[in-house]
Amino acid sequence: MKQESEALYQAIHKLRRKGTEIQEQYEDHTANEFRILHLLKMHPEGMKVSDVSTKLEVTSPFVTQLINSMEKQGVIDRRRSSDDRRVVMLMLTDKGEQAARKIETYMHHFFDGLVAYLGDEESRKLTELLHHVFDYLDTQKKQREEDAK
Fold this sequence. Notes:
By secondary structure, this protein is mainly alpha-helical. 75% of the residues lie in helices and 7% in strands.
């Protein structure tokens, strides 16, 4: 592995590890649970499991496992759609709303602090670089899917 590749690998590994440490220190929910809480907060009318899995780019069975756990925690309810009784919608409970607000407040504080630390220009550069990395990852995923055909 080239020196630049190794340095990038180490930096990304450290970023993931630090992110996990921060999450475990300040949140009562896993990163995936937070993502679901945040998504459902943005969709107060509720969402289907399939729509959640599409938005989060994970499988429906994975979302179902998370939802089962979150339902036991009392942060999510399953409700039948008023439009189509066959459709089950995921909705936040009052406890889920409180958890989502708490986590969002923390995240806003964290990222406001990061922007203040980096400055506006460095923050814009980092955002652009991350989007560029995401484009590369999407391209690699599509290539693997094509190669598998």
